């Protein structure tokens, strides 16, 4: 699956990840765009679906949330540490966030929608996110990724080899 992203795309995306003004949502959108998916970010569904999803793919009835690890309590993530002071303030706040996220996902499922969470820290490994998205959002058989240009290169090489073989004969 990692091969679905060409080296060029990957380095372009990674350069965006390390950019100072880059927001996780923008990276996720760039990735989806590069993978050839159509989505909305300010459409009616972005406002009316449970949890107001960051990204909506109407065709796939899929809502994507790009979650900050700290606020949304990414399990086993070092970015989701609990502040040492004011725990009486933080813990109920975190709990509310987690409960809200859970309810939104539940409500989306009841409406027949798929919910995908992209964690902020995951955007450091775009190949993994890409693989997860492709698995959750199956394409039509006719769809071909631009990366398949690599295959054309291979054909050109084999034709060259074929040509040499012809010369021998
Ligand atoms: Zn995380």
Give structural notes.
With 169 residues, this protein is mainly α. The chain has a single domain (2-140), classed as VSR Endonuclease (Endonuclease, Chain A), CATH 3.40.960. The chain is built from 7 helices and 3 strands, in the order αααββααβαα. The chain has helices at 7-18, 24-34, 44-48, 69-72, 87-110, 126-136, 149-168, and strands spanning 55-57, 62-67, 114-119. A 3-stranded mixed beta sheet has the order 1-2-3. Helix 1 (7-18) packs antiparallel against helix 2. The longest helix is centred in the middle third of the chain and has 24 residues, at 87-110. The radius of gyration is 21 Å and the shape is globular. The protein starts with 6 loop residues before the first helix and ends with a helix. Residues 148-163 have low confidence and may be disordered. The chain binds zinc ion.
SSE layout and pairing:
Layout: H1 7-18, H2 24-34, H3 44-48, E1 55-57, E2 62-67, H4 69-72, H5 87-110, E3 114-119, H6 126-136, H7 149-168
Parallel strand pairs: 2-3
Antiparallel strand pairs: 1-2
The structure holds zinc ion.
Residues 69, 74, 77, 79, 119-121 line the site of zinc ion.
Main attributes of the structure:
169 residues; binds zinc ion; Endonuclease, Chain A; 7 helices; mainly alpha
Low-confidence stretches: 148-163
Give the ordered list of helices and strands.
HHHEEHHEHH
The helix count comes to 7
Fraction of residues in helix: 40-55%
CATH domain topology: Endonuclease, Chain A
- Beta-strand segment tally: 3
Please tell me the total number of domains.
Answer: 1
CATH class: Alpha Beta
Task: Indicate the proportion of strand residues.
Answer: 5-15%
Main β-sheet description: 3 strands, mixed
Q: What's the end-to-end separation, in Å? A: 41 Å
Strand order of the largest sheet: 1-2-3
- In CATH terms, the superfamily is VSR Endonuclease
Task: Give the class from helix and strand content and strand pairing.
Answer: mainly alpha
Which distinct ligands sit in these coordinates?
zinc ion
Query: Rough shape?
Result: globular
């Amino acid at each position: 699956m990692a091969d679905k992203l060409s080296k060029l795309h990957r380095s372009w995306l990674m350069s965006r990840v390390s950019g100072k003004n880059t927001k996780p949502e923008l990276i996720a959108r760039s990735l989806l765009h590069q993978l050839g998916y159509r989505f909305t970010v300010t459409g009616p569904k972005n406002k009316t679906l449970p949890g107001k999803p960051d990204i909506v793919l109407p065709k796939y009835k899929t809502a994507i949330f790009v979650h900050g690890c700290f606020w949304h309590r990414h399990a086993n993530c070092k970015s989701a540490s609990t502040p040492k002071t004011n725990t009486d303030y933080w813990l109920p706040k975190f709990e509310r966030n987690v409960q809200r996220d859970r309810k939104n996902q539940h409500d989306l499922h009841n409406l027949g929608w798929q919910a995908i969470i992209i964690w902020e820290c995951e955007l450091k490994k775009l190949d993994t996110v890409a693989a997860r998205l492709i698995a959750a959002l199956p394409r039509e058989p006719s769809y071909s990724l631009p990366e398949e240009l690599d295959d054309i290169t291979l054909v050109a090489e084999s034709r060259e080899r074929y040509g040499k073989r012809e010369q021998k004969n």
